[in-house]
Q: What sequence folds into this?
């Protein structure tokens, strides 16, 4: 049995320690918001947060997540930043087929946590690993910039 | 009535996770629904059962498409698959416009398989050919208008007032004289008992309140919080995950196999030989994959093992020098070429392409002795259901298909042989339990059903005044529809219309034109891929027209305008794109160049101007200005998304992608060697829409064909080198 903290809850799963976190989330826990796209860390559809940092769950053995905080798209709205990012995604109306969007949103939130006001090239660098076949990249950029502006505005508002 | 009740009950009890997902927000709806059961009627176009005189225009039963609950929530049953193109928003918009519905109370469910949900032109339930809006434009507005008339009628009867004094607005019926008003939810039950109206007048476009306005997608909330259900997200009790080891060579068969090691993997429940290979059934994806990797299989590879891409192109290009089946002939191209002032000839190669949707193929099958339930993201419900029934030896009405969200379709999920559905039913028959068959990314990339590879040859000549005089184009490649149910519709006199579309119908004024086709055959299964034949013909035609402009010493836009039909919609989009891009006026940064292309597909016209540079020999597309004429626009925001999407999909192919074969084996496997465009490569995209009062035409695909030639033409401007092979990143520039 492996103990995991997922979206703030302690969960025990009976899985081979080498099983990728992705398949534990999906097949064991039915947390299906995290997607399978490539299995080799090429597309980023499986991106989740491990102790707040974006990781590819398709190549992260579940044993590596043991004792760490795992956040998936299902738990993202628990944080103010996650909520802000999702609200920006809604406002810009980013998704088309939507399959990659969990990974996009998780990657964008991790970026903004580390760098609350990223430049265009920093956004491109952070998001380059998350593929979208529908071509929503320009809207993703707009949504990240919108979320960044709102985060900064909130901070300034708080300080004033 | 008995049948109706039975159907109603069946649909209400077969709630599954996907349905539940949709219905969660409108649970009350199951109570007081009125215009509200699924009511599959006989025939693609259902009429009121008791309406004796056949109306001049077909009347679609609103109860198949609209459910109004007592709490005023409205659920639209959408009969097209949502694969990103926005039909779960645009089709409800058509209904809501005529229904005078409160847009904020609308939600969507996917239609089951039934004749009433057939595509109005295809005669089966299917999503493809950029046809959802054109084929639903009148139908869905009629559905909405019929329901509105019935609701008004119900209110007028309750109040004892003439219908003509009542109007509908924002999900309410209002009687002006008395000030009485009643909500749709309160009227629905009475309205549902009324006969369908046989006269339905539709609004004039000037009165549209929803159509033509940019609307937010109804599926966005579920797609940003992880709750949107794709096929891969369906889990049934007792279900096993199945991975199948398929032949590494197309057409190969299992000779013998040893599953000893595979069976030892914890979680593996069984290993079975199925028609397409060896199936491993396990408690989840990971044990299934681990075990599949341990299978030892000896394959009888068959003739497919002889296929190698360079050899195939060489053979195709030899064929291109010989006469083929004639798809178009005007005048005498041989004579025209002899008389031409200047001539040019060129050969083109474009490769097989995988669709590479982000969600790999997958199907869930729950097979019982007298019933089969399938969950999958399909574009082709009727054919899939019928093929599944045939394989499972059931009647079609014993097979249900639940269409989930599609994690991209691009044509792959409308397989004319129902390949992935049939295989999953076969796996369910072998395993004897509910199964989810999952294709890995590698399976998806190497699984065939590609956009065909094509070789083309063009000889063209211009007259002294620079105008084209002769054009001889020969196309070589496989037929997509040969051997499928579509052959009868799409192949005439040996010409598959999808092989020559965009080539046989070139619009330019050329007195001598011939377009020939050689249809080749081999073991590689081919299929429609976003924009189908246009994905290659626009590249060939629009780069050659650019060559002719250069040969004539003319500007590429001015040259096209001089040979396009007067007052044609081609000219409108070309001129608009040129104006918006500042063609010939805007000063571009050093080492940047514009290239242009214009093309009609799916009855829509698109011109694109690409601003391109080379950075250390690497092609960089900075900006694309697109102008589109797709008739009247339902959702401008959706049009913008689709043009942008098609440009990105087309750029991936133009710049990076190829499926190649060596000794019958596919050389690419995953996103490391088959590379979609990434974030950092994304150009700015501007979309300009031509105002139109014409009926709506396609939008999912027409943005794709012009992008490759626009980029190629810009690269010629930059380097003087003509690009005649895709993908372009195989070329070196000095």
A:
């Amino acid at each position: 049995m492996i103990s995991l903290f997922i979206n703030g809850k302690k969960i025990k799963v009976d899985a081979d320690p080498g099983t990728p976190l992705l398949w534990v989330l999906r097949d064991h826990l039915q947390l299906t918001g995290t997607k399978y796209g490539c299995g080799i860390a090429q597309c980023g559809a499986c991106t989740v947060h491990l102790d707040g940092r974006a990781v590819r769950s398709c190549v992260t053995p579940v044993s590596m997540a043991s004792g760490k905080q795992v956040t998936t798209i299902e738990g993202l709205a628990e944080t103010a930043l996650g909520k802000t990012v999702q609200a920006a995604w809604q406002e810009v109306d980013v998704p088309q087929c939507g399959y990659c969007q969990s990974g996009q949103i998780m990657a964008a939130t991790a970026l903004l946590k580390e760098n609350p006001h990223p430049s265009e090239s920093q956004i491109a660098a952070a998001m380059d690993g998350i593929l979208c076949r529908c071509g929503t990249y320009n809207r993703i950029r707009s949504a990240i910039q919108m979320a960044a502006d709102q985060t900064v505005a909130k901070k300034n508002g708080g300080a004033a | 009535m008995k049948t109706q009740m039975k159907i109603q009950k069946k649909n209400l009890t077969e709630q599954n996770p996907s349905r539940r997902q949709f219905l969660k927000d409108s649970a009350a709806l199951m109570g007081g629904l009125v215009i509200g059961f699924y009511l599959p009627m006989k025939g693609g176009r259902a009429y009121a059962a008791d309406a004796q005189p056949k109306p001049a225009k077909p009347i679609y039963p609103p109860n198949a498409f609209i459910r109004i609950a007592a709490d005023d929530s409205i659920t639209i049953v959408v009969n097209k698959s949502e694969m990103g193109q926005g039909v779960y928003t645009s089709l409800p918009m058509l209904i809501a416009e005529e229904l005078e519905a409160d847009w904020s109370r609308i939600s969507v469910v996917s239609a089951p398989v039934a004749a009433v949900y057939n595509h109005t032109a295809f005669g089966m339930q299917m999503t493809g050919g950029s046809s959802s809006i054109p084929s639903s434009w009148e139908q869905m507005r009629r559905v909405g208008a019929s329901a509105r008339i019935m609701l008004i009628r119900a209110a007028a009867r309750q109040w004892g007032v003439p219908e003509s004094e009542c109007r509908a607005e924002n999900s309410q019926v209002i009687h002006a004289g008395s000030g009485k008003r009643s909500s749709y939810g309160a009227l629905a039950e009475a309205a549902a008992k009324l006969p369908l109206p046989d006269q339905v007048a539709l609004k004039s476009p000037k009165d549209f309140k929803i159509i033509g306005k940019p609307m937010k997608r109804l599926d966005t909330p579920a797609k940003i919080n992880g709750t949107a259900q794709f096929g891969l997200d369906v889990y049934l009790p007792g279900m096993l995950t199945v991975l199948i080891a398929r032949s590494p060579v197309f057409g190969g068969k299992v000779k013998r196999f040893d599953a000893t090691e595979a069976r030892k993997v914890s979680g593996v429940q069984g290993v079975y030989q199925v028609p397409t290979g060896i199936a491993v059934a396990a408690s989840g994806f990971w044990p299934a994959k681990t075990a599949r990797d341990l299978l030892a299989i000896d394959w009888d590879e068959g003739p497919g093992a002889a296929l190698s891409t360079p050899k195939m192109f060489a053979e195709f290009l030899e064929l291109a020098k010989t006469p083929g089946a004639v798809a178009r002939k005007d005048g005498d191209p041989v004579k025209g070429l002899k008389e031409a002032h200047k001539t040019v000839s060129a050969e083109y190669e474009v490769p097989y392409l995988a669709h590479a949707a982000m969600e790999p193929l997958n199907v869930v099958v729950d097979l019982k002795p007298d019933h089969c339930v399938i969950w999958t993201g399909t574009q082709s419900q009727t054919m899939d259901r019928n093929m599944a029934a045939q394989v499972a030896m059931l009647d079609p009405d014993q097979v249900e298909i639940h269409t989930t969200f599609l994690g991209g379709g691009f044509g792959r999920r409308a397989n004319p042989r129902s390949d992935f559905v049939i295989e999953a039913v076969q796996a369910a028959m072998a395993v004897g339990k509910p199964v989810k068959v999952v294709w890995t990314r590698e399976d998806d990339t190497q699984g065939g059903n590609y956009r065909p590879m094509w070789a083309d040859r063009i000889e063209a000549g211009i007259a002294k005044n620079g105008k084209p005089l002769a054009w001889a184009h020969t196309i070589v490649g496989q037929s997509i529809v040969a051997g499928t149910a579509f052959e009868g519709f799409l192949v005439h006199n040996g010409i598959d219309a999808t092989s020559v579309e965009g080539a046989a119908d070139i619009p330019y004024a050329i007195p001598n034109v011939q377009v020939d086709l050689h249809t080749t055959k081999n073991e590689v299964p081919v299929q429609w891929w976003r924009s189908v034949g246009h994905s290659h013909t626009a590249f060939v035609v629009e780069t050659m027209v650019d060559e002719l402009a250069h040969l004539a010493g003319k500007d590429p836009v001015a040259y096209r305008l001089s040979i396009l039909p007067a007052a044609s919609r081609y000219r409108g989009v070309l001129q608009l794109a040129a104006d918006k891009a500042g063609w010939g006026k805007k000063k571009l940064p050093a080492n940047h160049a514009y290239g242009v292309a214009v093309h009609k597909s799916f009855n829509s016209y698109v011109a694109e101007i690409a601003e391109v540079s080379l950075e250390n020999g690497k092609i960089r597309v900075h900006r694309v200005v697109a102008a589109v004429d797709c008739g009247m626009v339902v959702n401008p925001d959706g049009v913008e998304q689709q043009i942008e999407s098609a440009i990105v999909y087309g750029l991936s192919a133009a710049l990076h992608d190829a499926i190649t074969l060596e000794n019958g084996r596919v050389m690419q496997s995953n996103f490391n060697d088959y590379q979609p465009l990434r974030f950092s490569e994304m150009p700015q995209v501007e979309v300009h829409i031509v105002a139109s009062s014409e009926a709506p035409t396609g939008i999912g695909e027409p943005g794709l064909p012009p992008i490759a030639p626009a980029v190629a033409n810009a690269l010629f401007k930059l380097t003087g080198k003509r690009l005649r092979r895709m993908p372009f990143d195989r070329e070196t520039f000095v």
